[in-house]
Design brief:
Layout: H1 2-18, H2 23-43, H3 47-72, H4 79-82
Helix pairs in contact: 1-2, 2-3
């Protein structure tokens, strides 16, 4: 029964992630989905793959996406800077 719950969490996490308009929320949901997939690998007795998935899919990729989003956010232009 536990694998089915993890399958549902991973699938729903990915679907909800795709429907997000806020990119930071998308990064968090990618992490949730990545942890669910890592747990699936652990249940399927593949601890090496589970560890790799947890590190890469649930930690590194969402962190890089969040950093990229924060660095590329558009700052509002004040009236002083807009006039030449």
């Amino acid at each position: 029964m536990i694998p089915w719950v993890l399958y549902i969490i991973a699938i729903l996490g990915a679907i909800v992630c795709l429907m997000q308009k806020d990119l930071l929320k998308m990064a968090v949901l990618t992490s949730v989905s990545g942890f669910a997939v890592a747990a699936i690998y652990q249940v399927l007795l593949a601890p090496d793959v589970a560890l790799t998935q947890a590190v890469v899919g649930a930690a590194i990729i969402p962190t890089l996406v969040a950093i990229a989003v924060l660095k590329t956010r558009e700052e509002p232009i004040s009236k002083d800077e807009g006039d030449l």
